[in-house]
Write a structure and sequence with these properties.
Layout: H1 4-28, E1 41-43, E2 50-55, E3 72-76, E4 94-103, E5 124-126, E6 135-140, E7 146-153, E8 161-166, H2 167-172, E9 181-186
Parallel strand pairs: 4-8, 5-7
Antiparallel strand pairs: 1-2, 2-3, 4-9, 5-8, 6-7, 6-9
């Protein structure tokens, strides 16, 4: 065999990929529906649920002279079967403020004080007094980013810090380049599991 079969299969594969690309580009060039007013109310396909259509907010990175997208932002009202975060009176209760640091590869896969193995890719933390398994909202006082972590270890050893975070949690707070970052700890919503503030 001279290899002509492989070349033929390669050409068919390229042709198939080119056809798929053309179909995707054609579907993306379909005309957009007419823009609705910013305050216009529309009905969902079931004809019952109302929702507001609002124009998209222009991102800071998009130049002012760039054309608008023509795609409206759709917000849907909460239904009765969705949990109400206001049902948890303790959600958002502050547990403390102070320094946070993070630990990673050096401790990866080692046993924590709770007995489970430390996973630097999981959203976990070490705290001196909170019970193992407790969920804590950690909010950066520097940039406002927040993440919910599970307490799996004891620490930190330094009195200047109130919590040690896994590498993944530190990354979520955008603090990998810093040594210690000031944070606020609070109780997340027990209904939604998310930070309240």
């Amino acid at each position: 065999m001279t290899g002509g079969g492989a070349a033929g299969r390669g050409a068919r594969g390229i042709g198939w990929a080119a056809g798929l690309l053309a179909a995707l580009l054609a579907s993306g060039c379909a005309p957009l529906p007419a823009n609705r007013g910013a305050d216009e109310v529309a009905l969902a396909p079931d004809g019952e649920t109302e929702f507001m259509l609002r124009p998209l907010v222009r991102l800071r990175s998009v130049p002012v002279e760039a054309p608008a997208s023509g795609v409206a932002l759709v917000t849907v009202e909460r239904t009765d079967d969705e949990p109400d975060p206001d049902d948890d009176p303790e959600a958002g209760e502050e547990l403390g403020r102070g320094g946070a640091s993070w630990y990673g590869i050096r401790f990866h896969n080692r046993r924590t004080a709770s007995g489970e193995r430390f996973d630097m890719g999981a959203l976990t933390a070490a705290h001196r007094t909170l019970p193992f398994g407790a969920m804590v909202c950690v909010r950066s006082l520097v940039n406002g980013k927040q993440v919910v972590v599970r307490v799996t270890d004891r620490g930190p050893g330094s009195p200047q810090r109130i919590i040690d975070l896994s590498r993944a949690a530190a990354e979520a707070l955008d603090m990998l380049g810093t040594g210690i970052k000031q944070v606020a700890l609070s109780k997340p919503s027990s209904v939604t599991g998310r930070c309240v503030r």
